[in-house]
Amino acid sequence: MTDFISNLFANLPTLTMPRFGLSAVLDIAFITFVIYKALMWIRRTRAWMFFRGALTLLMVYLAASMLSMNATTELIQQGFIYVAFALMVIFAPELRKVLESLGKNRNIPFLSTLEDSREANSTQCVDEIIVAAREMSRVKTGALIVIEQQVPLGDLEGTGVAIDALVTSQLLINIFEHNTPLHDGAVLVRENRVKAATCILPLTTEHLSSDLGTRHRAAVGISEVSDAYAVVVSEESGYISIAKEGKLYRNLSENQIKDMLLENIKPSKSRKFRPGFKNKKGGK
Fold first, then answer.
1. What is the DSSP string of the chain?
2. 45: how many CB neighbours lie within 10 A of its CB?
3. How far apart are CA 145 and CA 219, in angstroms?
4. Measured distance CA(191)–CA(149) in Å, rounded
5. In what order do the strands lie in the sheet with 186-190?
6. Residue bearing the bigger pLDDT, 7 or 111
7. Distance (Å, whole) CA 35 – CA 112
8. More confident of the two residues 186 and 94
9. Which of 53-57, 228-232, 257-261, 280-284 has the lowest mean pLDDT?
10. Over 80: is that where the pLDDT of 186 sits?
């Protein structure tokens, strides 16, 4: 009996514990982080319903494999190839947002050293924009001014009419005057200069208040795909609003506008903007 037990254990395969080094721990942590972020991103986009559909299809595939349903498994396998191409086409805007958000991440040392050394928009430039917005607000002239930051907006500049002039309140007011050739669309400001007018901006797909029109949707849209600030003057109410990071801050005072525009430019010399007192995306 003793010999039988000894032979039994002798024939068992040798079990070895896997060796976990620092690289394995980092590998697992990185993959876990990527999967978690991907799921959180999917939950906030149209991809969630697509993901649920793909998961259902995968469960059907596993069940068909277990039941040896060869025709069904072959059909699903061929379908997976087209699903991959459909993902890239259907969710191209969402994938672009993910890559752009990675590019805008200033917490990555390597990327921060590659940021443009463009001249910051000066206080005088901001003052001129505020004066123009105030005057246009008084007479309810609609306006949309996009102030470029670190993310280049050259593709949007190409959709408009080139100007390349120093930012002044008189210039901005004249551009947005009713019935003028350049009043429709957005003005792009870069390095204290008006680079182009009548620029076409992407519209947000998020829900906004019903009293907001295309101008406000375009302002939020450009702030979603870049770090630009979009100053909007409402043609209906005369309210001055700012779109930033996909959020719309409405009916701001001149001091609030100045603090917000200078926040990212000269944070040490301007007060920190506190958006909590204003409703976002559709509040009055």
1. -HHHHHHHHHHSPPP-PPP--HHHHHHHHHHHHHHHHHHHHHHTSTHHHHHHHHHHHHHHHHHHHHTT-HHHHHHHHHHHHHHHHHHHHHTHHHHHHHHHHHHT-TT-HHHHTTS--PPPPPHHHHHHHHHHHHHHHHTT--EEEEE--SS--HHHHTTSEEEEEE--HHHHHHHTSTT-TT-SSEEEEETTEEEEEEE--PPP-S---TT--HHHHHHHHHHHHSS-EEEEE-TTT--EEEEETTEEE-S--HHHHHHHHHHTT-TTTSPPP-GGGS-BSS--
2. 17
3. 9
4. 9
5. 161-166, 193-199, 186-190, 143-147, 229-233, 240-244, 247-249
6. 7
7. 25
8. 186
9. 280-284
10. yes
Q: Pick the residue with more confidence: 233 or 282?
A: 233
How far is 111 from 103, CA to CA, in rounded Å? Answer: 7
CA 127 to chain centre: 27
Question: Is the model's pLDDT at 231 over the cut of 90?
Answer: yes
Contact 225, 97 (CB under 8 A): yes
- Overall average pLDDT of the 178-197 stretch: 89
Residue 102 has pLDDT above 90, yes or no: no
Q: Residue 144 — φ and ψ, nearest 5°? A: -145, 110
Q: Is the pTM of this model over 0.85?
A: no
Strand partners, 280: 249
CA atoms within a 13 Å half-sphere pointing along the CA-CB vector of 137: 18
